[in-house]
Amino acid sequence: MAGDVIRVLGLGKSYPTAAGEFPALRGVDLAIAAGEYIAIMGPSGSGKSTFMNLLGCLDTPSVGEYFLAGENVATLDKDALAVLRNRTLGFVFQGFNLLPRMSLQDNVALPLVYAGVDKATRRARARALLERVGLGQYAESLPNRISGGQQQRVAIARALVNAPRLILADEPTGNLDSHTSEEIMRLFGELNGDGITIVLVTHEPDIAAHAKRQVRFLDGRIVSDHLTGAGA
Amino acid sequence: MIHPMLGEAWLAMGANRLRTALTMLGMVIGVGAVVIMLAIGQGAQYAVQQTISTMGANLFIVLSGSFTTSGVRSGSGGGPTLSVADAEAIAELDGVVNVAPTHQGTRQLVYGAQNWSSQVIGTTPAYLDARAWSVVNGGAFGDSDVRSATRVALIGKTVAENLFGDEDPVGKTLRIQQSPFVVVGVLGAKGQNLDGRDQDDSVIIPLSTAQRKVFGTPFLGSVRMIMVQADSADNMERVMDATTALLRQRHRLRDDMPDDFFMRNLSAAAESEAATTRTMSVLLGAIASISLLVGGIGIMNIMLVSVTERTREIGIRMAIGARRKDILSQFLLESVMISFAGCLLGLLLGVGIALAINALTGMVVVISGSAALLAFAVAAGVGIFFGWYPARKAARLDPIEALRYQ
Ligand SMILES: Nc1ncnc2c1ncn2[C@@H]1O[C@H](COP(=O)(O)OP(=O)(O)OP(=O)(O)O)[C@@H](O)[C@H]1O
Ligand SMILES: [Mg+2]
Questions:
Q1: Rg of chain A (C-alpha set)
Q2: Which residues of B touch A97 (CB under 8 A)?
Q3: pLDDT, average across residues B186-197
Q4: Quick one: which of A98, B222, B271, B275 has the fewest CB in 10 Å?
Q5: How many CB atoms lie within 10 A of CB A183?
Q6: Which ligand 1 atom lies nearest to the CA of residue A16?
Q7: Gap from A211 CA to chain B (nearest CA, Å)
Q8: What ipTM was assigned to the predicted interfaces of this complex?
């Protein structure tokens, strides 16, 4: 499909271990169209994070092909991958990964620095996104001043700041209580409503229930792939 | 792009103030040492240059040996072997500009109730020309004064200050060895000579008068010293050789007899002194730049630690789109900023200490803008050179490995 944001063919990843190569991912085929909202599930060690890191261009596959927005990622050098991570996708981590010494506003604006956006625009965009995730009043605070749920909202704001087509989130609610998790999921729902493609990893079925499609991993392979009927 | 990075480098430096300060201290000491050493070295060079320029150019002196019965020269005793006639003959040689037969010694000067011990130089007006010594108040004496042995004196600035105070010395009479001399002029200031003697503490009188009234020489017409000025530095050697030949002939020395005079090239002595100070200042600078090197290694060390500590931060930055050059410039900027700040403080410290040295010891120091500029260039160079490897190490990290760190 030409409109696919993500298309992977026979994707595999092996890690070198003391006992030899360990295949964490063994030939994954998947196509994700623009505007989809997908939850990836599976037991611990099934290769979900490995897969997400490949999708996020943070790691490179051992075998197989990955097309992101129609572009064969294998042909790109490190800097071109950095540009993809900067503009095309936004990554949300389980551990938030905000820079501790910077204000929330500067954290959110950081991808814009690497995009070469001028200061006034950076400020305005970061402000607007902090407002959008409901944290406008904390713009000048440091990350350790706010709660985990709030930090994750800041991290999402950062992922959104360069207006990406795709949000990748690896267990974004993994460190949060169920109430805060609901808030985060509501935010993802809104973003998907705005047309942003969302791929998130979760262990919890009620979180996965927010997605429109569920993909299940087991031992480095996709074992099920079905629509949930959510948001329909 | 540079602007937000500057702020970040500042933040990173502020995050570990003590460590940043200690790292900077290495640069402060290094740059401070370089600045001080340059100031002292250039000061010494300046002082020597200054002295040389007050001495007069292309000078050599012929010193008298002594008569002995065997005809072999001896260090002391006997009369001088040089004569005024020798001086007149030397003046006829090619390439000779000025010749001044001279007799000098330290004598007590008296003016009213004031006493002052000073160097008395009996010579001819050519001496003033050879030494490029001007008269700033009054006028010089002439050859006629030398011929008729008049009692006139030119006094140096130090003598004028110590004997006459605020009075105008010109026209006043001072006494040297009981003989009255009329001060006809005051000499321009020259400062110290190469041996550190105050050249302004001198009185210049006609040679003939000096020999008769001051030094009481038994052999009139003979002199202990002749100062000769050649027309150019290139001609010095030739003129000195010609002088030697001339004097040997005039003194009727056979080939197997040694010279009954010595020659000393004053300009060459000054040149070698200048070369010595140049070497010294280069050496001082070289030693000081070793401490700069040590400071640079300190920066490199801390930046390596910093890169390791901030591996996760680097991973995060890469995950949100930092390219290799972004990470590289971030760390490079940090090391350059540390070395620049250290350099600035070192510059202030160095200048402060150099000025203090000058104030406390009177040693000449020269603080030049070019030295400061050089220090800054070196600091930037050190920051970039020693920051490069850690920064490149940071930029080459693998995003996922960096994110997984710890
Ligand atoms: N850097 C690595 N080196 C070696 N083995 C690794 C590495 N990263 C992951 N693995 C292994 O690969 C397999 C898949 O790991 P992965 O992190 O993708 O699982 P996951 O599905 O995300 O699990 P979880 O739900 O616990 O996060 C695991 O067996 C893991 O031990
Ligand atoms: Mg995982």
A1: 17
A2: 316, 319, 403
A3: 84
A4: B275
A5: 16
A6: 4
A7: 24
A8: 0.95
